[in-house]
Write a structure and sequence with these properties.
6 helices; 2 domains; alpha+beta; rod-shaped
Length: 204
Amino acid sequence: MQSLERNIQQRLGAAMQTLAFIEQRTPGVSDGRRMESLLRQCRQLVADLEHGFSMLQEANSQHATLRQQVDAASVRAGLLFELSPIPCVVVYDTGVIVEANAAATRFLNTSARYLHDKGLDLFLGADREAFRAWVQQVSRGTAREQRPVLLRPREQRPKQVVLVGMPESGGRVALVIMNQEEATEDLDAAMSASTAAADVHPSA
């Protein structure tokens, strides 16, 4: 963006110098009306360039502010993800793990380094192909989905859990690992909130 600003600023400076040069030579030109018309067009062009450059500077300033806000929000989200007591992993649409928080590593009884680039289906007891198909379905959607699975942490007994999948950008999916009771309560709360919203805003 800054290099683009410098480029436009240089072109604007060159246009203004050209306009000044033409204005200096105008008195010696015989066809004054035609030259005056040309000058008006040049002045309008320079004015348009100045206005465009001003708008570009304003847009660049707004972009920098928004970028700072996005970066700050990303840092906060990353911290909340890592410190969350609820096991969470982020996977590609193939089911391969991109990130796992500390709670997920404890739940699966392994390390973040081991989990990285591993398929979460390695910890499933069965239906691995169905799980991968479900992840792809979630990645293409816009709403969260739930799926009961039997997870097998390393060197521990299998655990019946519910995966709550939420699509993210880039085809990734965030998976929250919840026990059956927590998932049911969460779903009931969501349905209650939806019902309350419908009562407040009835359909036409």
